[in-house]
Design a protein that fits this description.
Strand content: 15-25%
Number of helices: 8
Structural class: alpha/beta
Length: about 240
């Protein structure tokens, strides 16, 4: 399946009855299969933008379109998140009472596949991230890097067209971070997945094909340039 094309058009978002402005008129476009990083200091709006693209929240103004779906018109955002988007967070969010395989299978539950199919798919994905031998292991017995690799496998469970990663290497040492980014690179190539990764680490950002920088809720690019990218794609 091809990666998703993403359009963010003049999006703004505030909290606390408008007293905290998180995003100010942000526009960007991600090409299908593109590996892009979103870089900037803490509090600049990176995670807010990621949450809006993932339909975990709604913008105050502007529009977001992913794989042809206008997010403000979604009938069931949970289905969008289940079938189009995969999430990887800084802290893996694995369920400690479940094995690696069972954690990977979680997004597949309720999608119509049998337990045998889910288990086989989980084993394939764990093999892809180099952890087939740890399928029955509990998260508490895994290293930090192994837990994050399980989280990546879980994010790929339903074959998402867009992978959103929020500081996925923030809790890892440099060597393990390099391994996780190499895994993202592999996913981008082998699956054609569009990947947007939020990071404060310039070493991580340099591994991506394109870097977008934010400050004070704004994207630090010429708005006309991003607007032209959106116009070119639509024409």
């Amino acid at each position: 399946m091809n990666g998703a094309e993403v359009f963010v058009d003049s999006v703004s978002k505030s909290f606390d009855n408008g007293r905290v402005v998180a995003l100010r008129d942000v526009s960007l476009r991600l090409d299908p299969g593109e590996f892009v990083s979103l870089v900037g200091p803490s509090g600049c709006g990176k995670s807010t933008l990621l949450n809006l693209i993932g339909a975990l929240d709604r913008p105050d103004s502007g529009s977001i379109t992913v794989a042809g779906e206008r997010l403000q018109h979604l009938g069931d955002p949970s289905q969008y998140r289940a079938l189009i988007v995969g999430f990887v967070f800084q802290f893996h969010n694995l369920i400690p009472t479940l094995s690696s395989s069972e954690n990977v299978q979680l997004p597949m539950i309720g999608q119509g596949s049998s337990s045998a199919v889910r288990e086989r798919k989980a084993q394939e994905l764990l093999g892809e991230v180099g952890l087939s031998h740890r399928a029955r292991a509990a998260p508490t017995t895994l290293s930090g890097g192994e837990r994050q690799r399980v989280a990546v496998a879980r994010a790929l469970a339903n074959g998402p067209r867009l992978l959103l990663a929020d500081e996925p290497t923030g809790a890892l040492d440099s060597e393990t971070s390099d391994q996780i980014i190499a895994l993202f690179e592999s996913v981008c190539v082998s699956h054609g997945t569009t990947i947007l990764i939020v990071t404060n680490d310039d070493r991580v950002a340099e591994r991506t094909v394109r870097q977008l920088r934010m400050r004070d809720g704004r994207l630090l690019v010429d708005p006309a340039v991003e607007a032209q990218r959106i116009t070119d794609a639509a024409s």
